[in-house]
Amino acid sequence: MILGRFLAGGLKSPVILISMLVILGIGVLVPVLNLAVPPSSPFHVADHLVPLYGKYLCYGMAALALDLVWGYCGILSLGHGAFFALGGYAMGMHLMREIGTRGVYGDPILPDFMVFLNWKELPWFWYGFDSFLFACLMVMLVPGLLAFIFGWFAFRSRVTGVYLSIITQAMTYALLLAFFRNDMGFGGNNGLTDFKDVLGYDLQSGQVRSALFFLTAFFLALNLLIAAAITGSKYGKILRAVRDAEARTRFLGYRPENIKLFAWVVSAVMAGIAGALYVPQVGIINPGEFAPANSIEMVVWTAVGGRGTLVGPIGGAVLVNAAKSWFTGVLPEYWLFALGGLFILTTLFLPEGVAGLIRKAFGRRAKAPKGKDEETDQPVADATAGE
Amino acid sequence: MTEIPVKIPAEPKSAPKAPPKHAPVPSARKDTLLYLDGVSRSFDGFKAINELSFVLMKGEMRAIIGPNGAGKTTMMDIITGKTRPDKGDVFFMGDVDLTKHDEPTIAQMGIGRKFQKPTVFETQTVADNLLLSLKGERRGIPALFYRSNKPDRQRIDEILEVIRLERRRNELAAFLSHGQKQWLEIGMLLAQDPKLLLVDEPVAGMTDAETEETARLLRDIAVDHSVVVVEHDMGFVRDLGVKVTCLHEGHVLSEGSLDHVSADPQVIEVYLGR
Amino acid sequence: MPLLRILALAVTLALGALAAERASADEAQVSAAIQKFATADGFSGVEATIQELGAIGDPLAVRALRALGENELKVTPDGAVVIEGADALLDPVTGETVAEKGPRLERIRIKNSIRSMIDETISALTLRAADPVVRMSAADTIFAAADPEQLEPVQAALAAEQDPDVRRRLEQAVAAIQLASSDDPEIIRASIEVISQRGDQAALGVLLGYRNQATGEMADAADEGIEAIETRLAMWQAGQNIWYGISLGSVLFLAAIGLAITFGVMGVINMAHGEMVMLGAYTTFVVQETIRNSFPWLFDWSLLIALPLAFLVAGFVGLIMERGIIRHLYGRPLETLLATWGVSLILQQAVRTIFGPNNREVGNPSWMSGAFELGEMSITWSRLWIVCFALFVFVALLFAINRSSLGLQMRAVTQNRRMASAMGIRTPWVDALTFALGSGIAGIAGVALSQIDNVSPNLGRGYIIDSFMVVVFGGVGNLWGTLVGGLTLGVANKFLEPYAGAVLGKILILVFIILFIQRRPRGLFALKGRAVE
Q1: pLDDT tier at C341 (50, 70, 90 boundaries)?
Q2: Which of B1, B3, B116 to mutate to test the interface with C (most CBs of C within 10 A)?
Q3: How many beta-carbon pairs below 8 A join chains B and C?
Q4: DSSP state of A125
Q5: SS3 at position C471
Q6: Would you say residue A374 lies in a domain?
């Protein structure tokens, strides 16, 4: 009841409502065009494109998650890839367990890589992942818990601005190194792959692919609604107040560390869900997902789309990744030039991203003056300011 | 803030000492709203506050004057928990030791502060600025389920009327003039409904008319609140017509009526000039 | 400065080894004697020739004797005695290539009794070699083998030996032999004493070998000796770890110091800093290529030539970055971070396009290759020079920042930008030069790193996070902080490695720093000042 009213708050903005309908529409349309329209038709969506589009939507969800903390709370996370990957690993672990005896070594309990490493029994942290529901819980719990612990310490000690960005980067880097180790029990370098099916349905079948695509669209729409409800509530106003003048909110009696912590954890959980939906569609999860560069790339999706707009980053993620697919197909050497240029041009000329551009084009008065960076006017040298 | 150990002097030199918790309030602090005694704070050897003692009674309004660097802002920082004193006692309502609490707790106890440089939430509307300041729930998650209600709306309307920003309620605070931002910040103080208002240079950058308005506003507020005003503008201080404390180099130079203080030769020497 | 003295000592030692090129007068005599193998008549002829070589007593004959023992000494169809190498024929005395490998080589036949004669002759020859280093290594060989047969020649050599160092080695060799062969408890105890004083890995091996068969008191004595050696070795190991740590720390320092300057003065994080390092490394590569192709005799100078060029190249790119991008983003540190990341991607891809994606070969000049031993530690010249270079850069920067007018202005801007601006310092100018300076220093760090790391387009990636950790740990805007931060992290890393492994050690360091920032958000050596808000 309360929850319903809370979510309804997210629908106040027509932009959100329309965007949700569009996302759900795509979620239905793509599977229909793939399954029901004959391959000869120009409207047919090829089989390999369904998971590709699904991947874009997952990236969109990650960008949305990032926007919640960067756009509304001023936390530039350079480590959201870690939450994404952790969600992915949690789902991947379940899919590994579902392989059962169909692995190369045919061991009913141990995944192939463990047999290969001569392990005798399943490590304790793999317990429970044979249950789909448990895995789904972990998809949200593990990134959420990591975010909670990290945020608890970081926000409490008032680490902000670039310092915070750098330690989020260090966090994902440390995880990258950790997951590369074979001893960790997550398949080391190769990660988790060779998945067969999910809930008993063959992952390679067209129906399952389409179902996964629809699910991704559904969760994206749902997360958009949740994010809109959060940012539209009074809490959202507090969040923005913390972003713009953290010290001031403290003198009003708010605890910015707790305010930020909530958004941070929600955002991490969203990124985890995105990762979990990503893995069955892509068919692999490996430590590369933790690479610092991945997390920074997520930032550019959000920046291109327009931070602080929720819908923009989703579009940004789709746009940038579609461009990436095109470049890697046609001009592979130039992709990094394009991506690098995108970083520079967006920050220099499009601080509000494409969404800001569209808003301007439609002649609506810019809703807000440029959001202030938290460290503006506060040179690093002013040491005691941070104490 | 947590890493600065709260230093409690090993041997308090002056008479009133910090009592054990829940001990009866010593008579010296009875009926005081704010009680500072022997407070010192130095930054890298520079004594911003030096053996400062300052008492504010319940319901009182006080003006603080003093040259730049006299320690006015540091004193506010200490009261609001932003800065810990190196030594000395700071008590609120007679028995709450402010040196043991942080900013949000102190704010929730009922000490509101207006900054020297007006700080309002520029990307939000005037009404939302007041909504965020309204006394009440300060936790995040209940705020998710907050629903606009009649008492809150009425209170915001009242304050908007007091600070004369009714017609700009839905505009972004960033678009207000400097003086209007000062008023909005005073309005935010009112919305908090604190027991004690600390007002740092409320009329800096205001026109004469605005200054007069502000003095009237503060006098109105002082009817049912205790107020400490820091101000350089002597005309404004005279308008307030309250007891004045003059700070210099971190301690009290002179205290009394404005006429008394401004006649003090020391005050003339260091502050007013001849 | 003790460090300088150690350095001077090390250089003297190395030069001494080179000068000790033995001046052998009887090279011709040895050569003539070896030639007799070609005409030797049967086994007895060979034996006679070996005896003759032993009588000459010049260790130059050792090479030929070894080859003889391994059936590699051959006679060519035209009657010359040569060693058959893997792919050429070698002179039996000098070991230089004398001819292509040809067919129809005749082997000089030997039998087992001749083989042991050869071995004895070799040991005896090397124990009497002119070069004390050779004598020492002969003694060490005997020490490790501990063959009772050798006792007599070693004792004879010991009686004749003058050099105290070689004497000690010979005494140890005698002790090892006695330990293996004697039954007299007194002699054994004394031998254990001598061996445990030697205190290295070989001594430990000998004692452990003895311990396995010893019983009673002798076993206890051996245990004592083993413990003494192990303690000593552990200390040297710690010393070696400290050295590795200092070496890694100076690399981290070099990579981070430019970043510390730009971050300190401008509050800007330059994510392309690692790429500046990479540019410096590639500059070294280009300089070396040019030298290889056109001026090969300059190769030993290549690094000195590359240093200023790398500084200019990276500094210039930095200047363009500051003027073109960063100054437009002043006051928006997070956006700056993203834009510089974009620059880093472009620089990486540009280098990949120009030089290819693979590692490029950057050579070590002769004075940077090789290693020397210090006690039980092995120190490579390249690492040693990098540590020296890091110290040099540190002192130079300290001097520049504390003494030059740009340094003064930089410090002013670091401490209070608005005030500095009000005092008439042209802060944009200071920013641009600071950024160029920081980038330039990254460039010369790249020259140093090219000596110990793979030069590839990804070179910078490996350093960027570590550099940030150093800067953040040491405290922003403080050269000493960066030095201490770099060295601390380097040493900590190397000490964790043996216990936790390289990767886990690194993770632990990262976690430590993440926690450390929580406690001290401004680093070890934070600039102090009254809060201005």
Answers
A1: very high
A2: B3
A3: 10
A4: G
A5: helix
A6: no
